[in-house]
Write a structure and sequence with these properties.
It comes from Roseibium album. It is an enzyme of class 2 (transferase). It catalyses: a 6-O-methyl-2'-deoxyguanosine in DNA + L-cysteinyl-[protein] = S-methyl-L-cysteinyl-[protein] + a 2'-deoxyguanosine in DNA; a 4-O-methyl-thymidine in DNA + L-cysteinyl-[protein] = a thymidine in DNA + S-methyl-L-cysteinyl-[protein]. Keywords: Activator, DNA damage, DNA repair, Metal-binding, Methyltransferase, Transferase, Zinc. This protein is an alpha/beta fold and 353 residues long. Among the domains are: 68 residues, DNA Methylphosphotriester Repair Domain; 50 residues; 84 residues, Arc Repressor Mutant, subunit A (Orthogonal Bundle), CATH 1.10.10.10. Helices cover 43% and strands 11% of the residues. It is built from 15 helices and 10 strands. The strands form 3 sheets. The chain has a 4-stranded mixed sheet. Strand 1 and strand 2 form a beta hairpin.
């Protein structure tokens, strides 16, 4: 069910509002096509518009996809500026990319900057720097020395590497335990790398590498483990990586990894309620509060939702504003859009999580 009214959606169409991208589509009776609300084509008249939440609904209604905005294709993969750079980055993950490299590929740096900010919430150079840090992280997780990780990550000085690393996790690499109780490693995803912290039986944290709250969440776990957090992975790390791969490639939406939920009783209750929301479904904060039997606790529910530290698996991204608009998401609103768009495909294929 579309939560926003027609006037709101038509205004979003006129403004090419990116907050509805992948969540609502417009079907145009005069042309027989359906588009993203961000489509650059000339805007249709009000009387010719019908709005649906899924691609499947548009096709079932007899409309064909627009060739300009390609609503059946993830936007980033359809962008001719983005695709070659992503492929180049994966081919040389430890390379120190600069603007002259972009120019040598025949691309305009300002165009690239805008495209990556629109699709990923960060520039290509920021993504490349993050990718180099991942390489260093992997070296540490495999038992390598800090100096080896620094070289692998392409940092010229130890201090620059320590500073960049500490900015992500809140502590320098040399302070990690050699005899850990919890193990930290990164896992890949199409929406950017995530940090996974596990023990031998449970997942304690799963967060996007660029989430601002990650250092604070890491410090909290550091206290829980009495400082015994080290680099490395367990069978649980491998399990959640496999489940995420299947989730993103559309093979399976089932997460069976056992979760360790760190929070107050109320906060954990909110997270468990989030786990009940099916893929393709959404809730508002007020709906969550009512389902918990605490209709007056809307703000507390919102705070608990924002404190979630197991991204994707505990689906805080499925909570929208009361009017159906996107609201704050620690991983970035662009990721929230992509996750909802992906999960709508599960829903339309009747393959629920």
């Amino acid at each position: 069910m579309i939560r926003s009214d027609f006037d709101t959606l038509y205004e979003a169409l006129l403004n090419r509002d990116p907050s509805y991208d992948g969540r609502v589509y417009v079907c145009v009776a005069s042309t027989g096509i359906f588009c993203r609300l961000t489509c650059p084509a000339r805007k249709p008249k009000r009387e010719n518009c019908t709005f649906y939440e899924t691609v499947a609904e548009c096709i079932d209604a007899g409309f064909r996809p627009c060739k300009r905005c390609k609503p059946t294709t993830p936007q980033a993969s359809a962008d001719p500026v983005v695709k070659p750079l992503i492929e180049a980055l994966e081919g040389k993950p430890g390379y120190r990319w600069r603007e002259p490299d972009i120019v040598r590929m025949g691309l305009d740096p300002s165009t690239v900057r805008r495209a990556f900010k629109r699709h990923f919430g960060m520039t290509f150079l920021e993504m490349a720097r993050q990718r180099r840090l991942q390489e260093g992280f992997s070296t540490l997780a495999e038992g390598g020395k800090v100096i080896d990780a620094q070289i692998t990550a392409g940092f010229e000085s130890p201090s620059a590497f320590r500073e960049a690393f500490a900015k992500i996790l809140g502590q320098a690499p040399g302070t990690f335990s050699q005899d850990p109780m919890l193990f930290a490693d990164w896992v890949p995803s199409p929406l950017g790398p995530l940090i996974a912290v596990t023990d031998r039986t449970q997942l304690h944290l799963l967060e996007f590498l660029d989430r601002r709250a990650l250092p604070a969440e890491f410090r909290k776990l550091h206290g829980f483990a009495k400082g015994n957090i080290g680099f490395g992975r367990t069978e649980i790390t491998d399990q959640i990586q496999d489940e995420l791969r299947l989730f993103f490639d559309g093979s399976s939406g089932v997460f069976e990894t056992k979760l360790a939920l760190h929070g107050s009783t109320f906060t954990r209750d909110v997270w468990r309620e989030l786990l009940k929301i099916p893929a393709g479904g959404t809730r508002s904060y007020s709906e969550l509060a009512r389902e918990l039997g605490r209709p007056e606790a809307v703000r507390a529910v919102a705070r608990a939702n924002g404190a979630n530290q197991i991204a994707i698996v505990v689906p805080c991204h499925r909570v929208l504003g009361a009017d159906g608009s996107l609201t704050g998401y620690g991983g970035g609103l662009w990721r929230k859009q992509r996750l909802i768009e992906l999960e709508r495909s599960y829903s339309s294929n009747q393959n629920p999580i």
